[in-house]
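Hi support team,

I've been running sequence recovery on a batch of backbones for a student project. Most finish fine, but this one hangs at about 90% for roughly twenty minutes before it completes. I'm not sure whether the input is malformed or the queue is just slow. I've pasted the structure tokens below so you can try to reproduce it. Let me know if you need the job ID as well.

Thanks,
M.K.
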């Protein structure tokens, strides 16, 4: 299937492509052909880095809905971000995972494939999009609450499981 010309020239898709590039593939690791972006570095910022990455990734999902991505595509994009966010919160392992998972590049690719034909575009379902983004917020709040509960339990010396 040939890509619809308006997808590549659409300003919203250009924003998705640039943000995805910045987050996941901004620079080449010296001596290799592997590229990384700012997203793994955000994860190194204690307390807020992974959340900021999730918000920026959520913006890509938002633009996907505006561009006419199907519910199925938006759900796949959502789970890419959720997986990266949840594992990203694990100190050390999460940062390594962020380097290789590249949820934003995956989501850009999903959008490109799904929007390749004008016939596949759908009218944005704002209620569905709001539900997805609120789901992301609830997951982040839940993980944060669980992390604080575990931390407080460990500090107090009480078993938490």
């Amino acid at each position: 299937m040939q890509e619809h010309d308006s997808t590549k020239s659409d300003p919203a898709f250009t924003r998705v492509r640039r943000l995805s590039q910045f987050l996941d593939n901004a620079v080449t690791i010296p001596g290799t052909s592997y590229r990384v972006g700012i997203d793994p570095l955000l994860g190194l910022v204690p307390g807020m880095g992974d959340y900021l990455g999730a918000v920026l990734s959520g913006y890509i999902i938002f633009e996907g809905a505006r561009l006419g991505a199907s519910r199925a595509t938006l759900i796949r994009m959502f789970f890419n971000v959720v997986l990266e966010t949840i594992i990203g919160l694990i100190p050390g392992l999460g940062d390594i995972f962020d380097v290789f998972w590249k949820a934003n590049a995956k989501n850009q690719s999903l959008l490109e494939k799904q929007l390749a034909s004008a016939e596949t575009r759908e009218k944005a379902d704002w209620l569905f999009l709001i539900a997805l983004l609120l789901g992301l917020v609830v997951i982040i709040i839940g993980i944060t609450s669980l992390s604080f509960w575990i931390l407080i339990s460990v500090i107090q010396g009480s078993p938490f499981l």
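--
Follow-up from support: It reproduced on our side and the slowdown came from queue contention, not your input. The beta strands are 27-28, 35-36. No action needed from you.
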